Structure formats: structure tokens, C-alpha cells
Amino acid sequence: MNFRGLAKIATAALGLGLLASACSSTSTTSNAANAAPASSPPAIAPYVGQLHGGTQIASTVPADGDVNPYGVAVVPGSEGRLVAGGILVSNFNDKANVQGTGTTIVQVSPGGQASLFADITALPAGMSCPGGVGLTTALGILPGGWVVVGSLPTATSAELFVSNALGGNTSTEHGVPVTGNCTVVRLDLSLSPSAPPQLTSSTVIGSGYPWRANKAALVLAPTGLALSRSGTLYVADTLTNSISAIPHALTRGNALQDVAATISIGGALNAPLGMALAPNGDLVVVNGNNGNAVEITPQGRQLATKTLVRNGAGDLFGIITTSEGNLLAVNDGTNALEEFRFRG
């Protein structure tokens, strides 16, 4: 039998108090005022207020390097490899600190010596744990020395978004494609600390984006991509001077048409290329034709325009924002990286 978690259910007595409402009389013959006050129970100091300092007993990192100790259980009695008074600790992360990939349980003896109690990298033949092994806080010891530990494995993965500059050719000249419609694709990858990323699936999440061959820029097509915290992928389309939004980009299984996804078009946009999220959640888009940056709300309203490079046609391409809110941009005209400081 496989356990994904261990739950301990405690029952508690429910005390019902009776609140009585007393009506007082204005009679001066009452002796209530002369009654001795009831004695108060002695004050009990809070437990946590009496805790002092902290002393490390032992490291919980085993030989394989697992980290992030989660579960703790006290060994009630010696049985097999269990030592009475010892402490069991389950590790949730592997040596690369990837969550949900730890497989070891460490036992710390009463004398403070740590040793490997179990390494659950592989289950016995015929047994399986859905999703693999990733030990959790759920850790307990049953009568007879059986140790039960919860497993909440995490498949480590990453998502890449690609705007295809070519594809769906609709026109050619002398056998060379010159125009067409292309797509935006999500690539799902599985990650491993000891192997290169593996492509697990690819999904077209945006379609109908026009592209056109161009002598100066090679090709004009969807270029800048920015993923919001809510999971919306924004696409800057250089050819149509537009910004589109693809909701649920991390999970959607179908493609949204470019026209249906468009949230902002024209205005201050002039061959938009690079795009990034500002600290306030707005989009910052840089134009390829004039060196300007345009700020656009998630709903598509163009708020402001600022010249980053004067006469900067063909200068601004890739941009990112830093944790401090500064804007970093590559300048193709000077072949340099430039920083624009944020003064919030």
C-alpha cells in the first residue's frame, strides 16, 4: 500500500459555558458589596516565552546531499534499525535543492549522531508511488516499528515560449517565401539535475500572426514576448504595430487567433520589438523605428512614451527589467548594453 500523506486526527472535548445575565437591585440592603472577592487562579507563563536559545544537535544532510528537512518523529522504542529516543527526519529536496525530489530519512541518535535510516530512491518490485518519491512533513512511527512517510513529488519542469518568425507561407518570389502567417508556441520541458532538459510536449497557443521578409530587418514578425504573473503571454508584433494577449498561456491547449488576442494597435507603437514587464505590472515596449519606449497597461491602454535613444531607428531590440526596477536595453547602434535607472 502506498501513502501520499499521513494524517493524525485528534479529538477534543467541547466545553459549553453558561453565560448568566444578572439583574442588580438598587436596594441598599444588599450585602453583595461586602462579599469577599473570589481568588484569581495563579498566572501561568506562556510556554514559548520560556524557550531560550537554540543548539544544533546534528546535521540532517545525508551522504547523497538531500536537504530541506521537513518531517520529524520521535522513536518510542527500539525496533530493527530504530533506536529508542532517536529522532527521524525526512528530507524534501535533493542536493540541487529541487523541491519534492528528496528521498532520504535520517535518524539522529539520542547522543546526537546522524545516520541514514532509509533511502527510498526505488520501491520494491510491484509497488509504485504516483508521480515518484518526494518526502514530506508527514512522518510517523506505527506500533511494531513501521515508519510511514508521506510523498508529494514534484515533477520539475519549465515552459518556454517561442514566436515563430516564419511558417504558413502564403506568398513566394522566385521560390523564396516572402510573406505568411506564423504561430506562438509553448514548449514544455522536464528538468533533471544530472541531464539536459527534455522536451515533453509542444502546443500552439497563438496563430495567425503575419510575417513579411524585409531587407533591413530580415523578417518582420512577432518578436517581443512577456509572461505576466497571472499567466497571460503578451506578444509584440513588429509588422502590424500591435500587442496581443494570450490568457492561460501556461496551461491552454488551443490556439488564440492574433486578431482576437489584440489589445493595443497603432498609436505610439512603431515596429515594436523588445518587450518586458515593468514593476507595476505594465508592459514596456521598445520601437524598432524610432528608439522610443511605450508603456501599456495589461488591458492595452497606452499610457506614456519616452525616448531612450534619440534618432534611434534600428537601435533598440532586447530589454529586461531588474529587481530594482531599472531597465536594461541593448543598443544596436553602439553595440552596448545600457541601463536606465528607475526613480520610484
Q: Return the average pLDDT rounded to an integer.
A: 82
Q: Uncertain runs with pLDDT below 50, 5 residues or more?
A: 1-35
- How many β-strands, per DSSP? 23
Largest sheet: 6 strands, mixed
* Structural class label: mainly beta
Q: What's the N-to-C terminus distance?
A: 57 Å
Question: Helicity range of the residues?
Answer: under 10%
Q: What string gives the helices and strands in order?
A: EEEEEEEEEEEEEEEHEEEEEEEE
DSSP strand (E) fraction?
A: 35-45%
Number of helices: 1
CA radius of gyration is 32 Å
Overall geometric form: elongated
Describe the structure.
- The strands form six sheets. Strands 7, 8, 9, 10, 11 and 15 form a six-stranded mixed β-sheet that branches. A four-stranded antiparallel β-sheet has the order 1-2-3-4, with no helix packed on it. A four-stranded antiparallel β-sheet has the order 12-13-14-16.
- The protein has a domain at 60-151.
- The protein is built from one helix and 23 strands.
- The protein has one helix at residues 258-261; strands at 67-74, 87-93, 104-108, 114-119, 135-141, 147-151, 157-163, 169-173, 176-192, 195-214, 218-220, 222-227, 233-237, 242-246, 256-257, 262-265, 272-277, 283-287, 292-296, 302-307, 316-321, 327-331, 336-340.
- With 344 residues, the protein is an all-beta fold.
Structure in a nutshell:
The chain is mainly beta. It is 1% helix and 44% strand. The strands form 6 sheets. Strands 7, 8, 9, 10, 11 and 15 form a 6-stranded mixed β-sheet that branches. The protein has a 4-stranded antiparallel β-sheet with strand order 1-2-3-4, with no helix packed on it. The protein has a 4-stranded antiparallel β-sheet with strand order 12-13-14-16.
